[in-house]
Amino acid sequence: MDFLGPVGLLHEEKTLGCSQKGLPCPSNSSELVQKCLQQFKVTGAQLQQIQASLLASMEQALKERASPVPAVQMLPTYVRSTPHGTEQGDFIVLELGAKGASLRVLWVTLTGTEGHRVVPRSQEFVIPQEVMLGPGQQLFDFAAHCLAEFLDTHPVSSQSLQLGFSFSFPCHQTGLDRSTLISWTKGFRCSGVEGQDVVQLLRDAIQRLGAYNIDVVAVVNDTVGTMMGCEPGVRPCEVGLVVDTGTNACYMEEAQHVAVLDNDRGRMCVSVEWGSFSDNGALGPVLTTFDHALDHESLNPGDQRFEKMIGGLYLGELVRLVLVHLAHHGVLFGGYTSPALLSQGSILLEHVAEMEDPSAGVARVHAILQDLGLSPEASDIELVQHVCEAVCTRAAQLCGAALAAVLSRLQRSREHQTLQVAVATGGQVFEQHPRFSSILQDTVMLLAPQCDVSFVPSVDGGGQGVAMVTAVAARLAAHQLLLEETLAPFRLNRKQLAAVQAQMQEAMARGLRGEASSLRMLPTYVRATPNGSERGDFLALDLGGTNFRVLLVRVATGGVQITSQVYSIPECVAQGSGQQLFDHIVDCIVDFQDKQGLSGQSLPLGFTFSFPCRQIGLDQGILLNWTKGFNASDCEGQDVVYLLREAIRRRQAVELKVVAIVNDTVGTMMSCGYEDPHCEIGLIVGTGTNACYMEELRNVAGVAGDSGHMCINMEWGAFGDDGSLGMLSTRFDASVDQMSINPGKQRFEKMISGMYLGEIVRHILLHLTSLGVLFRGQQIQCLQTRDIFKTKFLSEIESDSLALRQVRAILEDLGLPLTSDDAQMVLEVCQAVSQRAAQLCGAGVAAVVERIRENRGLEELTVSVGVDGTLYKLHPHFSSLVAATVRELAPRCAVTFLQSEDGSGKGAALVTAVACRLAQKIRV
Ligand code: G6P
Ligand code: BGC
Ligand code: BGC
């Protein structure tokens, strides 16, 4: 047993007792004994002090990111929920470190049926001393060999075995299967392991052995295995407590209180690692000379001080040191000390437990002391039992104080006045020591009276629990794989995006030539961007986005002033009759004029009409087809300016001069062009999506003139309606398209714009639920509802600051039962869908800027893009992803994106102003 540390020899010269040395035995022996045993007495106040100080250290460590090294580690274990009981399957568990110099392999079968347990088959292997202190590779190779030896005796099918690695040492975990050893404890000190990922070391060793196809899917601390292994009784165990060779506890903390988890929500099992608790203020008074001696001779002096007062590896040694001390002072064994008694580690936990066990009786104590080469008197036996009692009582009380600190923390983190909780306990000290558990429970009752605690002894040392975690890890790993498979089609690479760009450029050229193309490339009769000389008051209408607006735009020397009012377009009007829609529009205009005191004034009006229109002139636009949820009858194929004028005439209200009809992309380009003359492209990514740009007039078939420019409304929303985007379209895009009011139409728009992204996400969530990946496979009613998952949720969910918290709040409001893992998956789905949308939009812009550059035969092009639309403006990453994609696909174009402040209404007014200025010039 010298792995407690290399100092056994020191005592040899002291083997002769006071009587043998002819020295008088001290008369005040009882005083000396009392003084010695008194050292192990811990007062209620001291226990409270320890409870309070440990609680403070725990909360400090939760808040800070490990600077300075906290008294206790508070390590997240990535176990986020207690067992559902639904976990099932066969799992291999490898236990290393829980039971000192032994390693255990278990075959655990989880039945998935509550209360139905299959007793695990297991095999224990003694770890040779030189392996515990040798090179790390040797230890992991030893573990791999034990695994193989165990499996050699079990029928193993070819398919890969899933293994849970119970590794009972302090580790920084970054996932269920990623864990870096911080420091060895409990007699282990292998080289080349601290700071390494122990899962990788085990995987490498298994690989080196190459005997079995074993997948290490989870690494678990023994306290977690103990907690997860407890039968879900009245209430699930939310604390795991181990007192074996070492000691430690874990509990389910609110994840948001764990700083390193960055605002996560839900719960996270945290391994306290209280073995390293060493607050001199609290511990100083209870540390005895024997504790210092034990620590001094240990493998890790100065570390794990709290553990060295409680752990089974140390209790025997503490007793031995006290016995040696008392013998040396002649009050025990007549002052005789045997070589065995002077040998470090010669008294084990089981010795202490037996010597204290009233049922074991004096005979057993006598036998144990005889084995140590001693011939105890009856008084010696009584004193030895008192020493064992003192050492173990203190250990149990200290452990009780520590557990009381954890319970107080749990109560605080749950903000409960009282706490009902079940604590799973495991470890040889609990199993072997007759009174440890009861003393501990009494101490907890004393120190945490507001907690109603039930103790659930672990039945198999946590093997079942480790298998539970492994099952959860395996399930999560399988789910992550299914999630990746589901989202893979949304992960577009550079080659695919460049193909979209090239296809769009070809479609643009064909559209301009008037050939078959999914891009209609509609001339807008806007030939110039504003030059700043425009002046006057104009009315503007802005229809087709989220809101319908009526605006008064005053273009003056000092700039442009806008007064506007938002009006709603009820769905029944948007999908009613055309007459009803345009009468509604005129009603809004009249209402606006009344409110603005414009009644009776006949101001020129610019009409932003954000739908595909074949323009015959600036004030004539034939609606080709509705998009974005509009479907008013008797409009398609009609001149919408005429329909508006008819509505004005029907109202007999005022004479309005409709001067121009512009697409919102054109309005946006003009609006931004007023500030930046480089702005020659308009981009909308809102309810719908589209772009326009200044094309060379010579390239525009069907419009007279070879010089100068014409703004072209690309109507890129329809890109791919000829099937050219088929290779990118997913089953979810097909579902969204089929359920839309214009199936087969606007395919590009349906992959990008705000009206559809939420729906794509909803369909993916339904699919993942059907695979059992989300919401435990429970089909959720509300997710069956169209448009229930708003696109604005993506913008909120993907906001960097409050990711998971936001996800849960939003989805809980939707009535979705959510685990943190579900939340993380929903976030990844949203990210994949919005990223694809932004990249496709970027590929489109890259096609446009490259066309302009090539049109002008330029090496480099500097151009600005006026942008509007809720999705582009509100989504936290959309705009930067678009810009990044353009930089990658059109490196020879310096593109600036200008977010339009005043919307395209201002643009419509400016187009009207330009038209009026040009008309004025002709007249003079
Ligand atoms: C602004 C413009 C509208 C445009 C809309 C698109 O509001 O003024 O003309 O239609 O953006 O974005 P949205 O998200 O509203 O569909
Ligand atoms: C380790 C813990 C472990 C405990 C009980 C301690 O030495 O640091 O990780 O849980 O022993 O085995
Ligand atoms: C329409 C375009 C419009 C775009 C953005 C599309 O659905 O077809 O005309 O520019 O939405 O609002």
From TrEMBL:
Keyword hit for Transmembrane helix: no
Entry's Gene Ontology cellular component terms: cytosol; mitochondrion
Keyword Repeat: yes
Hexokinase N-terminal domain span: 33-230, 483-674
Molecular function as annotated in GO: ATP binding; D-glucose binding; fructokinase activity; glucokinase activity; mannokinase activity
Family: Belongs to the hexokinase family.
Name of this protein: Hexokinase-3
Organism lineage string: Eukaryota, Metazoa, Chordata, Craniata, Vertebrata
Gene that specifies this protein: HK3
